[in-house]
Amino acid sequence: MIQLLFFFFAAVVVGAAINVLVQRHVLYSALSLILMLTAMSVLFILLRADFLAVINVIVYAGAIMVLFIFVIMLLNLPQDEDGADRLRWLKFLGIPLGLFFLFLVGATVWNVEPASAQAQLVGSPQAIGQSLFTEYLLPFEATSLLILIALIGAVIFAKKDL
Amino acid sequence: MIKIIVIFGGVMGSLAYLTWVERKVMARVQMRPGPTRVGPYGLLQPIADGLKFLFKEDVIPTNANRFLYIAAPVVSLIPALLSFSVIPFGPWLQVTDLSVGLLFIFAVTSLGVYGIALGGWASNSKYPLMGAMRSSAQMISYELSLTLSVVGVLMIANTLSLNQLVLSQRNTWLGFLPRWNIFVQPVAFLVYVVSAIAETNRLPFDLAESEQELVAGWHTEYSSLKFAMFMLAEYANMVTVSALATIMFLGGWSGPVFGPGWMQAVLPTIWFILKIFVFIFFYVLLRSTIPRFRYDQLMKFGWKVLLPLSLANIVATSFIVAIS
To answer: What residues in A contact B120, CB-CB < 8 Å?
Structure first.
């Protein structure tokens, strides 16, 4: 049963991810991305990472993508916008970066150990809070600082005359 | 399985009768009799309304985006009903007790905004689009303070499971005063209630459908069963936020339990429903008495009053929790 669910939602994730790229209309791409994120959360639940699954939906599907949709509706972009020409040189950067990313994913998958019986304990909110504020305190604080900087930058962009 | 049927049936039935409650209470506030013709006290009105929705012509505007237009009511109704799967209606009446139940409800309700946004956009018409934009901006803004307002409660109760939250409020002070979180976290309660009203698009925060400016806002172009689904989703969300408020601040299903065995099984559920009803009644009273906010007032209020208030509440609570 769990395997059946896994394959179904894995197929949804992959299909929606491909659909994000091939859709001509921006809104449909954004909607596919939402579908992908939601299906991904189901995969997290199947892996017993309830907290991660729920946070994934709250932050990405529920907040960030709403902003995306909001902007798309506000600008009411034309059906087929061809902005790809200006960014042609990006493929020289994109292909090596993509390969590097594949290498990183491959290396991670290669080195990761199969989930143990303790997986449920690792995924609980208490365990995540514990490890965030002890073992991973520095990355956590660095990320907070990064977000703060981005926030200040956004405010400065929005208000030219401070 | 039986639990699912009982909860689903009960929720759907009571949602239908909430329309009757709302119309009747509003009518009485405004010194009108309200629905009286269909059945005694107009009690069969919801059924008549349902039949009317069923037989009405289902109009799809010519320039609408057909797929999204049809999908939008479904997208708004499913999350609204999904959240009932983790709400504990009584010690035994709960479909599943997730360890992250509270966050699950927030996640699911945050998806509900897409129904409104897509419905407004797919109609391909001015007023629905404006309603949808207003509503998505409003819901993002108030979701922040809604989520942050409950952090204080979570720090005290030390759990995310809804059933555990109820159990943590079972004690009493001085033997008679229930130890409900509303007395421990009054600020959080206020912030929660106000942002919950905004989150469900109810008056005085119903900028998304404000009749005087936008005809009917995001569901202007909808008719028949699709319109009914939007309405159902709105009422379901109302019940969800009221149920959450009850669970987190008013002790959920806890209450005096007495009498023979069958009464002991039923009473907690009755307390729970009564407490929810207090909130619904409050909602309807608000709707019939208070005028609508202006849009900029709404945004200012959300970001400059409610958000700092809930952040301050978190800081204060964490100090107190750390000391004690």
So the answer is: 73
Q: Is A74 within 8 Å of chain B by CB?
A: yes
Residue range A1-77 forms a domain whose CATH class is: mainly alpha
Q: With beta carbons less than 8 A apart as the criterion, state whether B235 and B18 touch.
A: yes
Task: Express each pLDDT in B237-284 by its tens digit.
Answer: 888 888 888 888 887 777 777 777 777 777 888 888 888 888 888 888
- Is B174 strand, coil or helix? coil
Tokens representing residue B265 in the block: 């099984």
Question: How far apart are the C-alpha atoms of B246 and A74, rounded to whole Å?
Answer: 37
**Are B129 and A58 a contacting pair at CB < 8 A?**
no
Q: What is the pTM of this model?
A: 0.80
Beta bridge partners of B177: B173
Label each residue of A98-111 as H, E or C: HHHHHHHHHHHHHH
Report domain extents, chain B: 61-323
Contact A27 B121 (CB under 8 A): yes
Which residues of chain A have a CB within 8 Å of the CB of B113? Answer: 62, 66
